[in-house]
């Protein structure tokens, strides 16, 4: 057998051949289109003509125009709130199913929890609009119970409504990964902790929680990334105060006929989200490491200091170096820090 | 953590989770044009109206065609990936599989606009084919996740044993692999079908002249008079989705029983 | 051990391995394996985890390619021959029973393409099941069997195809101790009944000693010694083999002279010894060495024993009671470590206590010298 035949017949070769249909499909329909929009972001459009000269004008505009910045920040903020709410609420439920439900009933619970997820997302968002409406059930029942006299107006057509709706829609996304990592915890570890003298609460904090961290992290990623780019919810329940970046991308492409700009915003949004998550994970590892080595107060101080510094730079920067410079500079420095942390700081006990 | 308050919390959680969907049948049968309490009496008028709307029927037909195609295509491609993942070691395995699973964590908007831009560039018409392509991309990760579980549950030496006893790789697949993986295949088909049926964003961006059911729904949302009809349609869709899921779950459990394995709780 | 000396003489080789090498990338899994396995014998590949025994077995079965060398079955070179075309059948470590089929369907699986009538197939399946003692199990669902039952189904399924060689990959490791002992006897009986060559892979040296006609002891991809169990036990070819098979005591020694088939040595705790050259695998050169002796080679002279040629005094450090035997850790004068000595427990014979001194007799012919 010559070298090529040997290679093809080897396990590695056979594996590659086996995986090639879906791989090729993904390359054609995901990689290539993604590459195309990156390409597009460097072009410009006049009415119907695409001008293919390479330019960073779109990026400059996207980074300097306060509207885009505001939308991006709002999208990040909403995503962060949704993630926080979802994951915090999901943890007790996942814990309950893993630790307090009989094994033969567990899949039933999971099944029940995931059913709403499989029904039409559009319908569920629309239902929230109905529920939170001026003359909807929430106001109706609150007024009927005498809790309020006038219908609440702050629950619909703003960012709050978006947060509520998204948190509801992404709940199962958060429960499943946390459940999986809780299930993996060897129960005899917890018994050992109790045997060695720990109370139930401390066992949870010292054994269960750290071991569940990978699942929590997965939940954070699974919820935050799609929610940043959601289109339907902000459109239906966000009003003007709840619009998010995806709505602007849509507007650029379909209403304003500026596909390159839409592409630019998409690329920027993805990059910012990815770098922000990188920053978050790196800082968590760093702060946990500090807390373990130098104490909780130092870790807290470091965290607060960095966050305040970022805020300060963000607010004062544009006056000094212009908006694009500020954003790019911030991203670069923050990412550098993240890379440094990943290289130098070892993985913590919580697996992060 | 104590069991009692946790259980209550979990039940409350479940209730809130289902609350919006519960409204659907309530208002679908409600004799009133405004979606608000108090209820006004029972009627099947809205369901009747559904039967008389040709645009709806067209959209339904499109959705069904797309969903069936997507289910088959995504499951086939998912089979390859799942098998490669569980049975072989090959270079860049983690990267390749991670890339195939990427659509799971990408916002659908990104996928939608990148496909749209490519279509526009190539001068192709968006429409049913492009939606099938986009949905398949989205569904492959789900198919892989389900089928990976099926393959992992199957003792690898079973296939080797069949070959040792004289079968060819092809007949081994037919006689041993397929029967044991079949429940997973059925589950994958049903899940992909459901996902495609309900998917909005990609369909919205790529539908052109061939709206799917969700796109049609979206179009109706701005007409207050149509809202009860939408409730009726929504009820049907939700019931259908739940039905398909129950069937998929039954198959999954049956598959586990057949292989004599224990239930580890759910698809993913 | 099986008494085969009268039975076979020299049967023809049915599996010939010649300089078989296998690399996994950089890792050298099989190093120049050469051996002949004779028709009708019960042959074992014995060694610790990672020694390559399973790799070798799978290479014979056809599930692993070899990097160089040759494997011949019945004289035919098996290079490029797929597993489904080889005259071998493999009993997998996990038994690989098809869970979606009944027991009968499992056993008859390999007959699908056979040129037999359905009636004949049914009868063959029934006979195969009878042979392994599962005559009534045909209609049972395969996934509801115990470990021992699964193993028998796997055996029946492989044997029904009348392979020239039956390969068994650690078939007893998944069973509990009692079941293992039962199955060891059953496998021996089965092999004798069927007359097929068995090649068994195991890490349990006791198992190999009990069941095999010949054993190949493997370490790190190579065969350290290939012999029948008695030779392996009495005349291990290296210290490592000696340590792996059974229990062995080692005493430091110094070779003082050698020549004309005799070796002179000073052994700690035992004094001056004269050994036969055959008691030392390889060359005996003057200098530091080690002497090995099995626990049963030292005899404790309980009060009133006959005086022996070679005797030595020692004190009891540790006592371990096994019911039929007692093992004593005895400290000898001049020996750095204790030696393990076994004594059969008999009515009237008492068990020694810790701290007691006692006299032991020993025979120089039972020693092995390792240089």
Explain what you see.
The complex is a heterotrimer of chains A (352), B (268) and C (371). Chain A is mainly α and 352 residues long. Chain A has 15 helices and two strands. A two-stranded antiparallel sheet of chain A has the order 1-2. Chain A is globular, with a radius of gyration of 24 Å. Chain A starts with a helix and ends in an 8-residue tail after the last helix. Chain B has 268 residues and is mainly α. In chain B, 75% of the residues lie in helices and 0% in strands. Chain B is built from eleven helices and no strands. Chain B starts with a helix and ends in a 10-residue tail after the last helix. Chain C has two domains: 13-236, 3-Layer(aba) Sandwich (Rossmann fold), CATH 3.40.50; 247-370, OB fold (Dihydrolipoamide Acetyltransferase, E2P) (Beta Barrel), CATH 2.40.50. Chain C has eight helices and 20 strands. Chain C has helices at 53-61, 103-107, 118-131, 147-159, 177-194, 205-211, 229-234, 239-244; strands at 13-24, 27-38, 42-46, 68-73, 76-77, 88-91, 165-169, 197-202, 214-219, 222-227, 249-259, 262-267, 271-276, 287-293, 298-301, 311-321, 325-332, 339-344, 357-362, 368-370.
